[in-house]
Design brief:
Helices cover 0% and strands 47% of the residues. The chain is mainly beta.
């Protein structure tokens, strides 16, 4: 069974940086895509960035380009999200999710394509 475990969340000051990690197991790595999504209280879940585990193709949300970077480590079976220049509005629970067909036919970061989800890690940006 697919298992996704997020880590790396915490409290950071505005302008600071944070790296999230998603440790993945229970599936054929290169068949999948992994995405990062976030949800703030009272708001809809939104995509942050996604990556194909087959060839490393990346989809970035335009508003986060230049601040957030997704990457993968095939040997470690992990996906990372490097977040820089954090703002209070980045405060949310960040989720790692898996698209079982994304490695073969990469899709954009839309919730409907992602079937397996981690429990999330909280990121709070505040002074």
């Amino acid at each position: 069974q697919v298992q996704l475990v997020e880590s790396g969340g915490g409290l950071v000051q505005p302008g600071g940086s944070l790296t999230l990690a998603c440790a993945a197991s229970g599936f054929r790595w290169d068949f999948y895509a992994i995405g990062w999504f976030r949800q703030a209280p009272g708001k809809e879940r939104e995509a942050v960035s996604c990556i194909s585990l087959s060839d490393g193709s990346i989809y970035n949300v335009d508003s986060m380009k230049g601040r957030f970077t997704i990457s993968r480590d095939n040997a470690e079976r992990s996906v990372y999200l490097q977040m820089n220049s954090l703002k209070p509005e980045d405060t949310a629970t960040y989720y790692c999710a898996a698209d079982p067909s994304g490695g073969l036919a990469f899709k954009q970061c839309e919730v409907k394509y992602y079937e397996d989800w981690g429990r999330g890690t909280q990121v709070t940006v505040s002074s």
